[in-house]
Amino acid sequence: MKLKILFYSLLSILLFSNCEQKKEEDPIKANYLDYSKREYQYTGGVKMIPITTPKGTFKVWTKTVGNNPTIKVLLLHGGPGLTHELYECFDGYFPNESIEYIYYDQLGSYYSDQPNDDSLWTNERFVEEVEQVRIALGADSSNFYILGQSWGGILAMEYALKYQKNLKGLIISNMMASIPEYNAYAQEVLAPQMDPKILKELQQMEKNNDFDNPKYSELLFKYYYTEHILRKPLEEWPESINRCFKHINPNVYVFMQGHSEFGITGNASLKNWDVKDRLKTLTVPTLSIGSKYDTMDPEHMKWIANEVQNGRFLFCPNGSHLSQYDDQKTYFNGLIKFLKDVDNGTFKKG
């Protein structure tokens, strides 16, 4: 009897000490949702950040999810002029890995101020906006990552080229480093894959600047976006994506990108953008994400990973432009591994 009591006592001690050890091993997970020491506990993580611009001070919307002192990922949405809603699926993956991430609507986008002044829509000013957001969030090179997709990838590259000293890691998702090469890929590789009749109809409307014709958007979404933006029938697109498109600021979008994702059209300000020759100066750990069916050439994305000094390439074989949705497991497994490897000091390029 005494031996039995002794056995259970020892077992209880072992189990208790094991629980204590686990608790000590993962303090970040234990405190991940603790906002008690943060100024925005009252707002549930939302912080309106004042941004100084040449045209005055405006506010941009951010929302922090989680609490991790060594991994803070600022999400730079695409468009330009779209919203943070593109990233809502991150809620299904990052919290389980104790990764802190920050939703952010850039100036001109839905939850942020929307000044009506085209002079504000420049790469240089957006870079300074991101830097002001970083400072306001209290992030630095010990914990600050930026993830930019599409236009957000342009902004991420531009930010890193000026401020990589403030970064711990850089993620370029589904964005080439040259708009002329992006246009060439759209016109020479993707366009010929379309039904010739549909392509001819789209090209004719573009030639006539008939972008407000409902037929233009209808054909673009049905025959191009479902192949290269998000590879699902339109009726199966996630509600967050439909909401994001609904909330677009067309003034910012058209001024910088043009009227469609079918290449940069008209006199859009981004049409000659190219930083290929400058990428070799980046030393910060970098993940470049490309997808088989993307509007962006996956071989170019692989080239980016090799061109920067500490790059890694993630290929999504079933993905398109929004591969966080249509090749989700590949996307998040590779992204989370990159963040953890950089955080643990085990990152290797390749």
From TrEMBL:
<feature type="active site" description="Nucleophile">
    <location>
        <position position="150"/>
    </location>
</feature>
<dbReference type="GO" id="GO:0008233">
    <property type="term" value="F:peptidase activity"/>
</dbReference>
<keyword id="KW-0378">Hydrolase</keyword>
<dbReference type="GO" id="GO:0006508">
    <property type="term" value="P:proteolysis"/>
</dbReference>
<comment type="similarity">
    <text>Belongs to the peptidase S33 family.</text>
</comment>
<feature type="active site">
    <location>
        <position position="294"/>
    </location>
</feature>
<dbReference type="InterPro" id="IPR029058">
    <property type="entry name" value="AB_hydrolase_fold"/>
</dbReference>
<dbReference type="InterPro" id="IPR002410">
    <property type="entry name" value="Peptidase_S33"/>
</dbReference>
<feature type="active site" description="Proton donor">
    <location>
        <position position="321"/>
    </location>
</feature>
<dbReference type="Pfam" id="PF00561">
    <property type="entry name" value="Abhydrolase_1"/>
</dbReference>
<dbReference type="GO" id="GO:0016020">
    <property type="term" value="C:membrane"/>
</dbReference>
<dbReference type="InterPro" id="IPR050266">
    <property type="entry name" value="AB_hydrolase_sf"/>
</dbReference>
<dbReference type="InterPro" id="IPR000073">
    <property type="entry name" value="AB_hydrolase_1"/>
</dbReference>
<protein>
    <submittedName>
        <fullName>Proline iminopeptidase</fullName>
    </submittedName>
</protein>
<feature type="domain" description="AB hydrolase-1">
    <location>
        <begin position="73"/>
        <end position="327"/>
    </location>
</feature>
<dbReference type="InterPro" id="IPR005945">
    <property type="entry name" value="Pro_imino_pep"/>
</dbReference>
